[in-house]
Every structure is written in C-alpha cells, then in structure tokens.
Design brief:
elongated; alpha+beta; five-stranded antiparallel sheet
Length: 599
C-alpha cells in the first residue's frame, strides 16, 4: 500500500485540500477577528469620550484644574486609554499622560478637524508626542458653529495588535490540529480502498509474467468486490484456455525464436511490409544499413523510416505483383545496396519482403580494379610510346648520325629503366598486399639504417645541390623490424624529399624516442603538399601535380609501398605539410623494448 502511487496521490490531494481549507479559515477568521477587535476599540474609545463629556457637563468647566486632571487620569487608567481635552481653538487644556503646557496646538489634527465638521472624528497614526502608533477618537462639545471644545480619547495600537495576534494564534493552532486529526480517518479509508486495488495489480502483473493461476480475496460488497470476482473468473478461464494452447504456443515460440535467430544472423537486411506499407519486421542488418538509430521502426510507415524514392518505388511495384531487383545508394549509411522484392504471401496485396544486399565493397573493389588497370595502362603507355618513337626514328635513318643515335638510345634506356622501376614497384606492392612479402624481424639500429641511406643518397643530393642533414637521437634506438623493409620505407621517403626540393634546399633525417616508439622524421624545404591532398597521397598512382611528377620522374607507387610496409611492421606513417612550406613525413615504429614488453 505504501508503494501505491494512487494512494499517495489521493492522500496528497486530500492533505492539500485540508491545508487550503485551514488556510482559508485562518485568513477569514483572522481578518474578521481584527475587524471585531478594532470595532470594540472604537466603541471603547467612544464610550470613554462620552463619559468624559458627561463628566464635564455635570461637574467641571472647560478650564484647567487639578480635580479635572485627576478624574481624567482615573478614567484613562481604568480604560487603558489616553484622554486629551482640547479647547475650541485647538489648545490642549488637559491630558492624562503629559503636561498640557508642553503640548502643541491640536486644532490641525485630523480627528479634531473631522469632529469639528461632523461631531465625531477618528484617525489611526503615530503619535507626534509619544512616537507610537495610536487609534484616536474625538467628540465635539457644543454645536458646529460655536464648539465649546473637543474630547479626544486614544489607545496604543501595539497592545491592540498583541490582542489580535493572540486570537489569530489560537485560530491557527485550532485549525492545524483539526486538519491533522482529519488526516487519520482519511488515511484509514484510503488504505481500505487501495488494498484490493493493489492485490488486483499484483495478480495482473503475475498473469502478464506467465503465472496464470491467480486469484484475489473478495471481502467487499461494492464495485471493488464485483471487480475482484470478475478478475477471478477471467483468471480461471484464461488459465484453462492457455493450458489447451500450451503445446501450440511452445511450438510457436520456438519457431519464432528460430526465425528471429536466422534473420538476425543474416548479413543481408530483411524488411517485411504489410499492405499499408507499415513495417512488420526489420532485422539487425537492415536497421544498420538504413540507419534507423535508436528508433523502433516496427509499426511505422516505410516511407517515414526510409526517405529513399527508389525503395518506395520498389515497394509500390511489388504491391502490384512486379518483382524487381535494383541498386540504389543510401545517403544515411553511405552504402550501395541491391534491393530484391518478393510478395509476403501468394497474394502480393498482403505485403512484401525486401532483401537489402550491401554491395558497397564489391563496387569499391570494382572501381579500384578499373582505376588500377587504367593507371597502370597509362603509366606503361607513356614510356612504351617514347621507346617506340625513338626506335622508329633510329630505323628511319637517325642511327647513321652518332649524335642523334646516342640521344635516342639514352631515351630508350631511360624509359626502359622507368618501366623496370614501375614493374618492380608493382611486384613489391602486390607481394606486400597479398602477404607474400618475406619479412625477417630482427633488432635493427635506426642509426645504421639511416647512415647507409645517407651514403647511398649523398651523390644524388650533391647533384641536385641539396643539403642532406642528419639529426640523431640522444641515445641509440633499436627497433624490431625487417631491415630491408625499413630501408625501403626510409629510402622512398628520401627519394621523394630530394625530388621535390629545389637547389640550395635542405633535406633532414631526424629520429628521437617518444615513449615506447622511435619516431623518424624526413623533413624537406620543398614545394610542400596542400592540405586537401593529405588523405590521398598514399594511394597508388596518386599525384598532387601530375605534370610536375612526370617531369621529375617516379612511378607514383612509392608512398603506397611505404604505407603498406609500415602497416606490416606495426608502424604508422603520417604527413605534415603546407603548400610552399616543405613537408615532414613521420614514421612511428615500436622500439625493441616495447616488443619485449608486449610479448
């Protein structure tokens, strides 16, 4: 019961209404009590003023005397008021609390002015003489045209307010106690109502969980009792029917589980759509291909979940009995899929099944193959054309001229060497990609590899008027790698750096330790590489400036070989460059100590 939200909602609502009712009573009674108290004060002041006025008419005159002052003080003490006699011109004749000689003229006081015109006047303000809040009442003696004087009676409002607050506290305490006491019976009655509802809820949840034999105790003769009896009847009938269908249900669950497992393990995406184009089923592959995200597509229109005109067209055609197989691109997942449609049953109007086969990788490989063949053909065609042209020229008679013959033979030799480099690079790249490249991992000193490469490329650097510099690490760095593969990587990077660095430039090979890695840098002051080409320079045959690359020479496969060999060695190669500011290629390869720790 205490966990019932309905119970606490009802109890909270009743408590709120009780609190609002108590607050309303407190506010109304407090306001009314204040009015009553102030009305009583007004009557008391009036009675006191009339008493003084009768006393003056009976025994005194409107002149100061000791007996008059004594009488005023006695009346003021009995009534807990302050009495002031004011002459017609506003001068104070007598006062029960102060010497009238020290008091200012009262002819301009509001209550006196009001009494002068209407016979009686009242005001509530701070007393100028005492400095405390007062309630004042003045009565005129005589007629309006020739008043004899005024009797003013005052009372301190702080004492009046204390009396009002005392009454209000009593009202508040009474209302609070009554409200709290009224909660106890309401708590009892609500618990009596909520308990059978809680029992019904528990039993219903048990039935929903598969425990069909549930009954609730009927202890009431009202609507809740009728509901309990109806629930018990329903539970008995449901249990009887489910026992009859138990075997069929078990077989159905097993069949459903089997189908769910089969469809869930399929690589192809499968979506079933009813005749209203509402999605009935979508396996995991379909959800990933169509990028449904966290949304549940079941029961939603396919045109709402898949914003693709081709898919919607296939569905509509399949509804009309036209089975189709089309390809389309899905922008959300950036995939290319082949869609096959089949009627969900013998009648196509009952719905269709769509099978999505992801052919993105097949199309990419096809494009790569076509691009590779095109690039290789182009790269082979250029030197072969030059060789063929030079040969024809020699056969046409240029061979008789030694100068021309030597020039054309040098061209043939140059292009033959280019063909040889291209074929060797292609073979090497093919071996690396196929895993046939023979590697022998041994401890390799970074310095020894760099020194041998510096000796090898010194002549090339001198002929190009480029300074070839070395910045070694503070300590000897040893990596576990294949020596030839590491030489190939650094050699290709040095070759590119020297090719694209103008005369009087610098190419620097530096290496250092970074945690458990050796980082080898090949820096140059060459033409640099624009940022938009950084992601593609390691592709086969990709060139930033094709015309300049062919003029300088090279196969266009060097950086691709570098990338693949670095991957085989467990290393990483990156580039940092800007156009006109040179380039920095970084090879990050694990140190020998890191390999030992891993193994």
């Amino acid at each position: 019961m205490f966990s019932s939200r309905l119970f606490w909602k009802l109890f909270g609502a009743y408590s709120l209404f009780s609190a609002l009712a108590a607050l309303s009573i407190i506010t109304i009674l407090g306001h009314r009590q204040r009015e009553i108290v102030y009305d009583q004060v007004h009557h008391r002041l009036h009675d006191s003023a009339v008493t003084v006025l009768n006393l003056l008419d009976a025994a005194f005159t409107w002149t100061p005397n000791k007996e008059l002052a004594k009488s005023l003080q006695s009346i003021a003490t009995d009534n807990k008021t302050r009495i002031t006699l004011i002459a017609a011109d506003g001068k104070v004749i007598e006062d029960s609390e102060r010497d009238p000689q020290t008091m200012e003229n009262h002819g301009g006081r509001f209550e006196v002015l009001q009494a002068k015109s209407s016979g009686i006047g009242s005001a509530r303000r701070d007393s100028p003489t005492l400095g405390i809040p007062m309630q004042c009442l003045a009565i005129r003696a005589g007629d309006e045209n020739s008043p004899t004087g005024y009797v003013r009676v005052s009372v301190r409002l702080d004492s009046v307010e204390a009396e009002v607050r005392s009454v209000q506290r009593l009202v508040f305490a009474t209302s609070l106690v009554v409200s709290l006491l009224s909660l106890a019976p309401m708590f009892y009655f609500l618990s009596k109502i909520i308990h059978p509802l809680t029992s019904l809820t528990t039993a219903a949840n048990a039935i929903a969980g598969g425990e069909l034999q549930q009954t609730v105790e009927v202890t009431r003769g009202d609507e809740l009792g009728t509901l309990s009896e109806a629930f018990n009847t329903m539970s008995r009938e449901l249990s009887a029917r489910m026992s009859e269908l138990g075997q069929t249900s078990q077989e159905l669950r097993e069949s459903t589980q089997l189908l769910t497992t089969v469809f869930g393990s399929m690589v192809e995406g499968v979506i079933a759509v009813d005749n209203d184009e509402q999605i009935l089923f979508a396996n995991r592959a379909a959800r990933q291909l169509l990028d449904f995200g966290d949304r549940n597509p079941i029961g939603r229109p396919i045109w709402e979940c898949v914003r693709n005109e081709t898919v919607q067209t296939v569905v509509r055609h399949a509804m009309n009995g036209l089975e189709r197989s089309v390809e389309c691109e899905l922008p959300r997942s950036e995939s290319i899929v082949e869609i096959r449609s089949t009627p969900l049953a013998s009648d196509a109007s009952s719905g269709v099944v769509l099978v999505f086969h992801d052919v993105t990788e097949l199309r990419r490989l096809g494009n790569v193959r076509r691009e590779f063949v095109s690039n290789v053909s182009h790269e082979l065609k250029t030197p072969l054309t030059i060789i063929q042209t030079a040969t024809e020229t020699l056969l046409d008679g240029a061979i008789e001229d030694p100068e021309y013959a030597r020039r054309f033979l040098m061209r043939i030799d140059e292009q033959g060497e280019r063909l040889h480099e291209l074929i060797m690079d292609l073979l090497q790249l093919a071996q690396v990609e196929s895993g046939e490249y023979s590697l022998e991992f041994t401890p390799v000193s970074v310095r020894s590899v760099v020194d041998s490469l510096i000796d090898e490329f010194s002549a090339v650097a001198q002929s190009s008027q480029v300074k070839l510099l070395v910045e070694p690490a503070d300590r000897e760095l040893t990596v576990k790698a294949d020596s030839n593969a590491l030489r190939t990587i650094l050699g290709n990077l040095l070759t590119n750096a020297l090719k694209y660095t103008a005369a009087n430039g610098k190419v620097t090979v530096a290496w250092k330790q970074d945690d458990r890695f050796a980082v080898v840098e090949v820096r140059d002051t060459g033409i640099g590489i624009p940022r938009e080409h950084h992601s593609r320079i390691f592709e086969r045959f990709y060139r930033v400036d094709r015309a300049r690359s062919r003029e300088i020479g090279g196969t266009g496969l060097g950086l691709s070989i570098v990338k693949h060999l670095a991957s085989v060695l467990g290393a990483e190669v990156t580039v940092e460059s800007e156009a006109g500011k040179g380039s920095v290629f970084l090879l990050r390869i694990p140190l020998l100590e890191a390999h030992s720790a891993i193994s």
